[in-house]
Amino acid sequence: MRPFSALADFFYPPACSVCGISTGGHRGLCAKCWSGIRFIERPYCEVLGIPFSHDLGAGILSAEAIAHPPPFDRLRSAATHDHAARDLVHGLKYRDRTDLAPMMAAWMLRASDGTVESCDALIPVPLHRTRMLARKFNQAAELARHMARLSGKPLLAATLIRVKRTSQQVGLGAKAREDNVRGAFAIAKGCENDIFGKRIVLVDDVYTTGATVAAASRTLRKAGAAEITVLTFARALSEPI
């Protein structure tokens, strides 16, 4: 161990990124918190990424994807939005824990099922400028920035903009969420060629009802995006179907 590393560990000992107890290394989780992460693995719906409790065969879609096809091509998420995964999301979003973003981004890259490697660009779901001033950073952009660094793919952080100041989605029902974000997004002037004919990965921290990423996807689709993959760190889910 290098002297500087030993000194740093003395003053800032390695701790679990979720609960804070001592661990063997930095930017990791303790065994208890790690066991609480429910990673989303196949088998799952090829469109909405909803995990199935049994393997129903290749290309099987969920009833929700068949009944209500989304405006994007596919959704992938690293983990279910509960336990330690929810704590990581809240730490990044509400407690300014930007140090969590590299680890979360690496898990998202693994969950992307090759779509990041084959995309033309990463685009984060934007915040309205007033919320950006209050929060000081965009958690979706932080995750996208680290994925761009890890994958070597372009990050287009200013191409998709939020033109409508919406209410917080937390606490709203599905219909209210949809109404809240209708017309909220636009393509920045002069950035149309960033989207037209391109394979886009749209990045956000959490997928709940899907209203926000659906509204953003419609804007990207209207601008001529050839393919849209929504990639989030976590997604709300009751149980595998």
TrEMBL record:
Source organism, top-level taxon: Bacteria
Ranges of residues in domain Phosphoribosyltransferase: 190-236
Gene3D superfamilies: 3.40.50.2020
Alphabetical list of InterPro entries matching this protein: ComF/GntX_DNA_util-trans (IPR051910), DZR_2 (IPR044005), PRTase-like (IPR029057), PRTase_dom (IPR000836)
Domain called Double zinc ribbon: residue spans: 8-55
Pfam (any one): DZR_2
Entry similarity comment: Belongs to the ComF/GntX family.
The protein's name: ComF family protein
